[in-house]
Write a structure and sequence with these properties.
Blueprint: H1 6-16, E1 18-21, E2 26-29, H2 30-52, H3 67-87, H4 95-119, H5 127-151
Antiparallel strand pairs: 1-2
Helix pairs in contact: 2-3, 2-4, 3-4, 3-5, 4-5
Length: about 160
């Protein structure tokens, strides 16, 4: 007969059910957090891993003109959508706060990514890439805002 250790049983119960979130003063559902924040964290890791790929001179991949700009746009469009999912996790609809945070965090990550790329050997940072990052963030914010507006019939709660 297998018996679980008391500490393990407590951990299992914490992850199976709910855990007290002392910062917000309410119960937090781990499954909800995992489905909203883990994909965002993985996407940010993916962005920085892609920025870590180094190229030697003359070893650049042969791609159609401006393909990298499309990649930057898509990366940050997805980031904005995932940020919205995480920030609006309680469904309270504080859309001004959520959108402001989304734009500030998104632009901050884009800036850090471009700064990081400038330090990676064989990579460079460019204002055009940063502009496409911001365009992706703003487009993602517009998509999520229009969806929020449609779901909430335009009623703003803060």
């Amino acid at each position: 007969m297998l018996t679980a250790r008391p500490g393990a049983a407590i951990l299992i119960r914490l992850f199976e059910y709910r855990v007290w979130d002392s910062l917000k003063g309410h119960l937090l559902d781990f499954k909800r957090v995992a489905t909203r924040w883990v994909p965002l964290a993985l996407w940010i890791v993916f962005i920085f891993v892609m920025s870590s790929i180094t190229y030697r001179p003359g070893d650049y991949p042969v791609l159609p003109l401006h393909t990298d700009k499309v990649v930057h746009f898509i990366e940050y469009l997805v980031l904005a959508i995932l940020l919205y999912r995480g920030l609006n996790d309680d469904g309270s609809g504080r859309i001004r706060v959520v959108m402001t945070a989304l734009l500030l965090i998104g632009v901050g990550i884009a800036g850090l990514d471009e700064l990081y790329q400038s330090m990676v050997p064989g990579r460079d940072s460019s204002a055009a890439d940063f502009a496409m990052d911001i365009t992706g963030i703003v487009t993602g914010a517009a998509i999520t805002f229009s969806r929020w507006k449609r779901l909430n019939r335009g009623v703003e709660r803060g």
